[in-house]
Write a structure and sequence with these properties.
Two copies of one chain form a homodimer.
Chain A: H1 2-24, H2 45-58, E1 72-75, H3 89-101, H4 114-119, H5 122-141, H6 146-159, H7 175-186, E2 190-198, H8 199-203, H9 206-210, E3 217-228, E4 234-244, H10 250-259, E5 265-268, H11 274-281, E6 288-293, H12 314-322, E7 325-328, H13 329-332
Helix pairs in contact in A: 1-7, 3-5, 10-11
Organism (chains A, B): Methylobacterium crusticola
Protein name (chains A, B): Haloacid dehalogenase-like hydrolase
Keywords (chains A, B): Signal
Chain lengths: ~350, ~350
C-alpha cells in the first residue's frame, strides 16, 4: 500500500503541474499569478469550500476521512461541465441532423415539426410541443445501430460550430471544472457525469473532453434491441422508446441504479439537479453540494430563474437556505473555456 | 506515466504474492506446488488460454496490445462467480424472506404462491408460474427504501446457510475466479459483473466477496421512486415494477447502457450468457470468451443441458464450434471455494 500512496501523491503533483502549465498558456489577465491547485478559480468562498472539503475527506485519521472507494463525485453536464446556451447542444445536434437528412425526406418540407426545424422557425417548433420533440428524437436517435449512432455524433462534433463562439461544441467545456475534475481524481475521487442528456451522446466525447470514461457516464437512455444480422453479426439497434429519464427525481434514481453508492460531492446548475443534491445531502458523513450560477453575459451567458434552458430557481433558493456552495461564474472563475483548438477543429 | 507503470507492476507483484499465500493456506492436496499466477487453476488449455490472452493484450508494442482504459472484463455472477444450486441464491433469499414475514401475513397460509413457499412445496410453487414469481418478488423486493432493502439482504447473508455446504452463501464463491479477478485487475483490467440477478441484491456483497465495487455491478433492476418523507428526508422507494432484465439479449443491451464500452473478456456459464458472448466476440481486436462448465458433482454440482437452473446447452455447442474457452470445473480447478469462514459466519 505504501507504493500506491507514493504513486497517488506523485500523480497528483504531476497533474497539478500540468494544470499550471495549461493555465500559464492562457496569457495575461488570467491565472498566471496562481501557483496552487485550481488556477482558474479566483480566491474566494467557493474555491475555499472545495479545497477545504477535499482536505477534510482525504486527511487520514481525521474526523471527516472518507476511504478512496467511497469518494464518488457526480457532475451534471449541460451548464455544469459544458455550456447549454442558446439551446442544449444535443438539441442542436438533433436539429442539424434533421437538416442533414432533409434531402432524403422530401415529405418533411410540409410536415411539422420537421418543417419548423428546416426553416429555423422556433415558434413553429414550440407549437409542435412534446409530440414534436418525440418525433425529432425518433428521427435522429433511433433506427440505427449503437455503433452507427456513435459515428454520426462523432462526425457532428468534428464539423459543427457553436453559433456564438464559432468553435466545436465539445471545446466549450468549463476550464475551472476541468481543473476540479483533475484535482478530485488526483485525490482519489472517481468522477461521474449524471445528466439528463442522452448517455450514448455524451459517451462519444466525455472521455476526450473530461477524462471521464464511458462507464462513468450516467444519463437518459433509450431501449436497444439485440439483433442478429443475416451475416451472423450481432448488433444493438436503437429503438424509439425511452428507457430512463435521468432528470429531476430521476437523478437520484439514476445514481442508485447506475452507481449504487451515494456520492459525497455533487455539482449541478439547475432545478433539474435539485433532487439529486437533496438526496446526496441527506446521506451520513461529509458532503459537498455545489451549483454553478451563470452570471457572466460577457464571457458566457447570464441566466437563472426565467430561463427556459437550465432554469435555476427553486434550487437556488434551497442552496442559499442550506449553505450549499454557489459558484458565481463572473466572480469565481478567471477563465471560462480552454483556449480554442487550432487547425481543423 | 513512468510512475504509474512502476506502481502497476509492484501492485501486481503484491497481489500475486498475496494469492500465493492464500493458496498455501488451503492445505495439502491443493495448490501448494504452484508458484505462478492462478494457483487454483490446473495447468491445461483453459489456464493457458487465459494467461496467453492477458500476456498478448498487455504487451506494449505487440500486435494485440489494448490500452488499460479499454481492458473491460465482464463476468456473469450465478454459476460463474458463485454457486447457483440447488436454486439461485437470490430465490432462496426471497423464500427465506417470505417465511420470515409469514407471521405478519396470516393470509399467506392459504394463498398461493405464499402457501407453497411456507410449506416448502416445490410443485405448488412451480404451478404458481410466472404470476407467482412476480408476487414473491413484489412481497420481498418492493415496498421499502433502497437502504432498508440493503439492510435486509445484509442480515440474510449474515444468518442464512447453504443447505448442502452449511456455510454463508457469499462464501460460496469460486476461488479460481477470485484469483482470475485479481490477476486481471493487477494487469489493468476493470472487472464488472453482468448478471441476470438483481443489481441491488448483488451490490450488498460484491465488493466484499469479489473486490468489485457497486458501480461495476450491472444487473436486473426495478423502478425506484424518489419520495420526500414528512421529516424532510428524501428516500428512494423500491416499486413493484421491473425496469430492466439483464439476461439473454438483455446482457449486451445492459453492457451498452451501463458500461458503454465493449468488453474484451467475458465469462459466463449458461445459455443466458450466449448473446453477451456473441456480441463481444463480434467486436474488433483480441477477445477472450469463456464458459464455466459445471462438471464436478463431488466438490460442487454437475449440470448442463437439462438443468432448470443455469442451463448450458446452445451456448456449449457454440463455444465448442467457435473455439471459446470451456472451463471444466473438475479437470481445470484444484480448488472450488475458499476455506470456510470461521466463527460466527
Amino acid at each position: 500500500m505504501a507504493v500506491m500512496g507514493r504513486s497517488s501523491r506523485s500523480l497528483k503533483q504531476m497533474i497539478v503541474a500540468a494544470l499550471m502549465v495549461a493555465a500559464a498558456s492562457f496569457g495575461p489577465g488570467t491565472a498566471c499569478a496562481q501557483t496552487g491547485p485550481l488556477p482558474s478559480w479566483n480566491e474566494g468562498a467557493a474555491k475555499r469550500s472545495l479545497v477545504d472539503f477535499v482536505g477534510r475527506v482525504t486527511r487520514e485519521g481525521g474526523p471527516d476521512y472518507v476511504p478512496p472507494a467511497e469518494r464518488i463525485a457526480v457532475f451534471d453536464n449541460d451548464g455544469t461541465l459544458w455550456a447549454e446556451q442558446p439551446e442544449y447542444f444535443q438539441a442542436r445536434f438533433a436539429f442539424d441532423r434533421i437538416r442533414a437528412l432533409a434531402a432524403e425526406h422530401p415529405e418533411w418540407r410540409d410536415r411539422q415539426p420537421f418543417k419548423s426545424v428546416i426553416d429555423g422557425d422556433a415558434k413553429g417548433l414550440a407549437a409542435a410541443g412534446q409530440t414534436g420533440i418525440v418525433e425529432i428524437l425518433t428521427a435522429t436517435h433511433a433506427g440505427m445501430t449503437t455503433a452507427e449512432f456513435d459515428a454520426i455524433v462523432a462526425d457532428w462534433l468534428r464539423t459543427a460550430r457553436h453559433p456564438r463562439f464559432d468553435r466545436p461544441y465539445d471545446s466549450l467545456v468549463y476550464q475551472p471544472m476541468l481543473e476540479l475534475l483533475g484535482y478530485l481524481r488526483a485525490d482519489g475521487f472517481k468522477t461521474f457525469i449524471v445528466s439528463g442528456g442522452g448517455v450514448e451522446f455524451m459517451r462519444v466525447f466525455a472521455e476526450r473532453a473530461y477524462g471521464i470514461p464511458p462507464e462513468q457516464v450516467v444519463g437518459s437512455s433509450g431501449v436497444t434491441r439485440f439483433e442478429m444480422r443475416p451475416d451472423g453479426r450481432p448488433v444493438l439497434v436503437k429503438e424509439p422508446r425511452v428507457a430512463f429519464v435521468d432528470d429531476g427525481p430521476g437523478k437520484p434514481a439514476g445514481i442508485n441504479r447506475f452507481i449504487g453508492r451515494a456520492p459525497i460531492l455533487a455539482f449541478g446548475n439547475s432545478d433539474g439537479d435539485r433532487q439529486m443534491l437533496e438526496w446526496i445531502a441527506a446521506g451520513d458523513g461529509p458532503r459537498f453540494l455545489g451549483l454553478v450560477h451563470h452570471t457572466d453575459a460577457e464571457r458566457e451567458y447570464a441566466y437563472d430563474r426565467q430561463s427556459p434552458v437550465g432554469r435555476l430557481d427553486e434550487a437556488l433558493d434551497e442552496a442559499e437556505r442550506r449553505g450549499w456552495t454557489i459558484v458565481d461564474m463572473k466572480r469565481d472563475w478567471n477563465a471560462i473555456f480552454p483556449p480554442a483548438p487550432r487547425g481543423g477543429r
